[in-house]
Amino acid sequence: MADHVLSTNSEPKFSRKRKLGKNKKKSWRAVDITETEEFLEDQRFQLRTTGLVAEKADDQLFLVDKTKEEANTVPKKLSALTLATEEKKANSFTRCQAVKQRKQALQEKAAQLKKKNCLPQFEHDLWDGDGDDGADDYYLEVTKKRRVKPPVKPTSTTKPAVEPPHPGASYNPAYDDHQDLLLQAHAVEMKKEKEEQRIYNALDAKFPSLAERPSEATWLEEMSGGLFAYEEQDGETQTGDDDRVSVNPPVSRAQRKTKKEKRKAQEAKAERQKLLKKKEKKLRENMVFRIPTLHLELKLSNELVGSLRHLKPEGHLLEDRYKSLQKRNIIEPRKKVRRTKVKKKTFQRKSHRNVV
Hints:
Layout: H1 34-49, H2 58-61, H3 80-117, H4 175-202, H5 216-223, H6 230-242, H7 259-287, H8 317-327
């Protein structure tokens, strides 16, 4: 028995109309007359039922509705005047209530001000000797004073307004304190000297001075180098070739890095350099408005005098107060901005042809 295979695609397949010539009777059989047959079938159906629709009169096809229309039950919209009246009536109660609330708020505020301005009342006499019976535990402390209430907003810094100087800066200091202050000043000077040496090595040391500039004798010695002692140098090079030693030790196959290890090492190195640059950039940004440190006020051992009359003052009081305000964040630290000098421009006038 043959197996029947059902098609899963249930959609109808539309075939294109074939273009046939109508000058032959053989091609007439292939003409599509589906629309004509449907029209004739519709005509026959109308004749069997009620007759042709095209031959009927209008009163047979249409019905005239002569029933009375019912009244519209939808309420009419309010006009603008009516809406304003209704809104005024609705807001009258709200306005009166707002006036009452305003009066009540003013009365409460006046009562609070009156309560705040009145003097506190004490149940006991402060001048009485027997006032310890009704005293609070707070007044039984050693100071017998009320502590100052701290502000609600915390202070920006905890540094004191006047910082005490180093004990070694006294006019008659102890030996250890004076040596400690001298050691701090020595560290500051060493730091400055290192910075100056670094700048010298980066700039001046790379260029010869006036005394060390090349002369004719040095030029002749440099140009004649290796011409007269060629044989001696040749013998030295031959003996030196035998004593050559490899600088880098040989690398075994097990010690070689794979491509993955090399890539990870390069990524780690790039990340370290990126973090270092970020740190240097942040340090440069913060150095712009950093508070400069004041120089140490000290006296050398031969400048110490045991009397205030012969003491030479150090520092400046106004500068000290100004730096203290900057440290306590009362005023912002500033940097002196120099006036930029505009470069002069030269141009030629077309009228006189004179260089100005």
